[in-house]
Design brief:
Layout: H1 6-16, H2 35-56, E1 63-67, H3 73-80, E2 84-89, H4 92-100, E3 106-109, E4 122-128, H5 139-148, E5 150-161, H6 174-182, E6 187-194, H7 198-213, H8 230-260, E7 268-274
Parallel strand pairs: 1-2, 1-4, 2-3, 4-5
Antiparallel strand pairs: 5-7, 6-7
Length: about 280
């Protein structure tokens, strides 16, 4: 079994899914999913990030850094919001796609746990589903680096998985994400759960269960069969047609679900800190 290397893994993703959609969503969200699904998730994430920005009260003209910027979607949006935005990513292929998608401004190659910036240069640093993909032993260093490059009173937004598992996914509990930042001098302003999608999660779990019992790959992209075969293609299409219903209903009901369920029931947490 090969050792997980973030640079290698995301380099392959950037290469294999570079032309999957014009907005560059596939490489940074769900590479094997239809475009509509990534657009739905992106819309939800954008709403959550704007909510975090409002909590932090980031002013126009703030100097921002998006760590693990991937194909540049947040850099582009931060610029639209009036920030002086910089993006950093370890993968040259991601940065190439970011430029092809029209990302203006500074794009820097570098690793999240060794940021190539001086101390206290940014007003705002964001990390949207990035540290969760860094091996656990390097996660504290990555969060410490993001705090280091913040100006005093600057703000950090962490948007990370709080449940799930995978060969390249290393989530933490909400309490642990908070401890990682507060132990390095940051103060938590608030946090909320993001992406409950309860009906969709239940449907995917059922599909995976049926897939496993039938001897097929437990894969949300093609449950029950190899998608390269004719049968696999039919199963995959049926899966995504049904999931379009469950995902859409889930996204529509999420605001209500958030009022009913504890934040820890979500798949992600959005944490806002002040240095």
């Amino acid at each position: 079994m090969s050792v997980y290397s973030p640079k290698k893994y995301w380099g392959e993703v950037a290469e294999n899914y570079v032309s999957a959609d014009a907005g560059g969503l596939a490489p940074v969200l769900h590479p094997g999913a239809p475009a509509w699904f990534n657009q739905l998730i992106d819309k939800q994430q954008f709403h959550a990030v704007r909510r975090g920005l409002a909590l932090a009260k980031i002013p126009s003209g703030a100097r921002s850094l998006d760590v693990g910027c991937g194909t540049g979607r947040w850099v582009r949006r931060y610029r639209q919001l009036g920030f002086r935005a910089t993006g950093l990513d370890v993968t040259p292929g991601m940065l190439k796609t970011a430029r092809q998608c029209g990302t203006a401004g500074a794009l820097v190659a570098g690793e999240g746990y060794r940021l190539p910036f001086a101390d206290a240069v940014f007003d705002f640093v964001s990390d949207v589903t990035v540290v969760q993909h860094i091996p656990p032993e390097l996660q504290p260093a990555a969060i410490g680096e993001m705090i280091r490059v913040l100006k005093p009173e600057g703000h950090l937004l962490l948007f990370e998985l709080i449940r799930g598992r995978g060969s390249h996914i290393f989530p933490r509990s909400p309490e642990n994400w908070i401890e990682q930042a507060t132990s390095q001098g940051a103060t938590l302003l608030g946090w909320f759960g993001q992406e409950f999608l309860l009906a969709d999660r239940l449907f995917v779990r059922m599909a995976q269960s049926v897939s496993g019992r039938n001897g097929g790959p437990v894969n949300t992209g093609a449950p029950g069969a190899d998608s390269s075969s004719r049968t696999g293609s039919v199963v995959r299409n049926a899966f995504w047609q049904l999931r379009r219903i469950t995902a859409s209903v889930s996204a529509w009901t999420d605001p209500l679900i958030e009022k009913i369920c504890p934040a820890k029931f979500a798949t992600h947490g959005v944490f806002v800190f002040r240095k």
